[in-house]
Recover the amino acids of this structure.
C-alpha cells in the first residue's frame, strides 16, 4: 500500500511569486484535503476535493486554489505569495465510497514553504 | 467562531505513568471527533474517529472517550513509554471540514 507523498519537501519563494505543491494520495483513496499549519498553530483547513471536485473550503482567499486529477493526485496552487503564507502545508487523503467525512485522514509529510 | 480547545498545552511524565488530556468542542451539530498523534519529523497518524455519544475506543495502551452532550473527549495513555512522546491533536468535524485544536505536546522521560 503506497502512502501519501508530497513534493517538494522544502521550498523558498519570494513575495508575489506563485507556487504549486503536489500530493499523491494513498492508493484507493478518492478524497484529498489540504491544510496549512503556521508555527505554533493547529492545522487550518484549506479545501477538500472529492472525485475531482472541490466540496469544502476553509477561510482562505481565492489565490489559494487546487486541482484533483483522475488518479486522485492533487495540487495546491498559491498565487501572489505573501510573507504570512510561510507555513507547513499538509495533504491528507481518505477513502470513502460514500463521502461520509468520517473516514480517518492519512497525511503526507508536508511541504515547508518559506516566503521571503 | 467554532473553537476546539485542548488541555494541557504540554505535559511531561515519567515512563510508566498513566496520563490523560482533554479536547473540548462545540456540543451542537456534532458529526465526528478525530484524534491524531504527530511525532516529530513524521506525518500525523490517525488514532480514532469517534461519532457516538458515550463511545469508547481503544488502540493498545491508548483509549479515548466521547461526550457529545457536554462537548468533550478524553484521551488516555496507560503506562506511558518514551515512544509515546508526540503532539496529540483532536479535530471536530463541522460542515464538511475539520476544525483542529492546537494539540497537547507529551514528553515521556525514560
Amino acid at each position: 500500500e503506497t502512502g501519501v507523498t508530497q513534493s517538494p519537501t522544502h521550498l523558498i519563494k519570494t513575495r508575489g511569486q506563485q507556487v504549486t505543491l503536489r500530493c499523491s494520495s494513498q492508493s484507493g483513496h478518492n478524497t484529498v484535503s489540504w491544510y496549512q499549519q503556521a508555527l505554533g498553530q493547529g492545522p487550518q483547513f484549506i479545501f477538500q476535493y472529492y472525485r475531482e471536485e472541490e466540496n469544502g473550503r476553509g477561510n482562505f482567499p481565492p489565490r489559494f486554489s487546487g486541482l484533483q486529477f483522475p488518479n486522485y493526485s492533487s495540487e495546491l496552487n498559491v498565487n501572489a505569495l505573501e510573507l504570512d503564507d510561510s507555513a507547513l502545508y499538509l495533504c491528507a487523503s481518505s477513502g470513502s465510497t460514500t463521502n461520509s467525512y468520517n473516514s480517518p485522514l492519512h497525511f503526507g509529510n508536508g511541504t515547508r514553504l518559506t516566503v521571503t | 467562531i467554532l473553537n476546539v480547545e485542548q488541555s494541557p498545552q504540554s505535559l511531561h511524565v515519567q515512563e510508566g505513568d498513566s496520563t490523560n488530556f482533554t479536547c473540548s468542542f462545540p456540543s451542537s451539530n456534532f458529526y465526528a471527533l478525530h484524534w491524531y498523534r504527530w511525532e516529530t519529523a513524521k506525518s500525523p497518524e490517525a488514532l480514532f474517529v469517534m461519532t457516538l455519544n458515550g463511545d469508547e475506543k481503544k488502540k493498545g495502551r491508548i483509549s479515548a472517550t466521547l461526550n457529545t452532550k457536554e462537548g468533550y473527549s478524553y484521551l488516555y495513555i496507560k503506562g506511558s513509554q518514551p515512544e509515546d512522546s508526540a503532539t496529540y491533536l483532536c479535530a471536530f468535524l463541522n460542515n464538511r471540514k475539520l476544525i483542529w485544536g492546537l494539540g497537547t505536546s507529551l514528553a515521556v522521560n525514560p
